[in-house]
Amino acid sequence: MAKQTPKKSIDDKEAKSIVVKGARTHNLKNISVEMPRNKMIAITGLSGSGKSSLAFDTIFAEGQRRYVESLSSYARQFLGQMPKPDVDEIYGLSPAISIDQKAASRNPRSTVATITEIYDYLRVLYARVGRAFSPISKNEVKKLSNTEIAQFVLKKVEELGVGGANKKVMGVEYNDLQVHIFAPVVRGRKGEYYQMLYDYLAKGYTAVRVDGKMKQLRENITLTKTKKHEIDLLVDSFAVHELGDDRQDFEMRLGEAVERAISEAEGFIRVVVGEADVKEAEKAGTETEDSLLSAKLISPEDGYIFPEVEPRLFSFNSPYGACPECNGLGTKHLYGDEPCKLCGGARLREEALNIFVGPKTNKDGTLKSGVNILDLTSMSIEDAYDFISDLELTPKESEIAKVILKEIKNRLLFMKNVGLVYLTLNRKANTLSGGEAQRIRLASQLGSRLVGAMYVLDEPTIGLHQKDNDK
Predict the structure, then answer these.
(1) 182 HSE (CA, 13 A, CB side)
(2) CB of 17 closer than 8 Å to CB of 37
(3) C-alpha–C-alpha distance, residues 293 and 308, integer Å
(4) Domain 12-94: assigned CATH number
């Protein structure tokens, strides 16, 4: 039996070369050429000799057309019909990407960061590991889940239980220290609130703390209309010893109390350990621990409210994150230079500019907010790369941001490598030169880490210094 020769899946020549036969696009005169694959190839010649006709209008056009034809008919209907170049035959092509010398987008919203997709990753970074600071009190605002609040209370109760019993009744020793869960329904507002108190009584609540003094809802409560009041609705009270009596029941009851308090106070909860009545505590000389917590990004000190922090909050192209005055343009008029009066050219709403990443403490140990997304995009490529490389994060934050930081660093490094270290990330695209725009698009494509693609570049070194050519 004759031995059968294995059939090759692809011709050796086709695997190693790009072969063009009989190219007649534009002013090409039946040109045939063979070029090695996986190599850097320069096509040179006089002006008008057909360099672009061969590179762009023949090789790139056919590579792109073949790739599009491999897509489904549903996808192709959105791309339109691509004409076939005037050529007898081309083989050995890969999917093609063209980067020409045309100026960047004239869109006034486009920047270096948006073109390279760095801004998309920055938005995710700030949404996932950013820390919110109130612009009024300058303090960090933390959002706690119901479970985290319940764990906070449990920890307090367990710490108090360590102190042992403080009372003895009929030979039984126990700790009668109380933990109170309040819903802070009125915080520093004027009014009488009689109808509100009546509604809480109808719901089944029995007591409130008015300006630090405990009151039963069934008794006569006097409020001054012109005076600012603090009204805390008592949701539940626990004795420390109850945790040891039945932990499961205690945790279930605590979870329900936390949920109700947050619901009644629209995201706030007050936890008081010790005597709930401030005046009674002062008379008895006992210490009381009072903690105001938030289940939303609301500053307990000044009431500053943050919206839900998500990537679109940092997008000046989204109504959710854009400055409401200039709609994310940063200027008073379209294509104008006068900065917006509200955002000062930042393009984002105030809340987005008060979320920071970066160092948490100064050298002297005091709290430091870090940098917001405007500060970061105002940096040069080189400074931004150094900042991202040295970014201080907790182990949990590092795990969340690991992939995001890697993508940002890759794109910044590519731009450094093509000699664009002097550009800032917020540089508008319509102010870039043709060479800068081309190198930015090249860095963006290289940052995508595609393998096996064919890149067609139009005079990539024109206007560059020799040291940039070497790069």
Answers:
(1) 29
(2) yes
(3) 17
(4) 3.40.50.300
- The confidence score (pLDDT) of residue 375 equals 93
User: 62 and 93 in contact (C-beta within 8 Å)?
Assistant: yes
Strands, DSSP E only, in 211-288? 213-216, 228-239, 268-273
pLDDT tens track for 364-419: 555 556 899 999 999 999 999 999 999 988 888 999 999 999 999 999 998 888 88
Q: Does domain 144-294 have CATH number 3.30.190.20?
A: yes
Domain 112-139+306-432: top CATH class? mainly alpha
Q: How many residues does the chain have?
A: 471
Residue type, 32: S
Could you give the CA distance from residue 245 to residue 242 in angstroms, rounded to a whole number?
Answer: 5
User: What are the domain boundaries of the chain?
Assistant: 12-94, 112-139+306-432, 144-294
Tokens of 428: 């508008």
Model confidence pLDDT, tens digit, residues 202-219:
999 999 999 989 999 999
Model confidence pLDDT, tens digit, residues 165-182: 555 545 555 556 788 999
Tokens of 271: 């936890």
What lies within 8 Å, CB to CB, of 256 at 6+ separation is: 236
- The model's pTM: 0.69
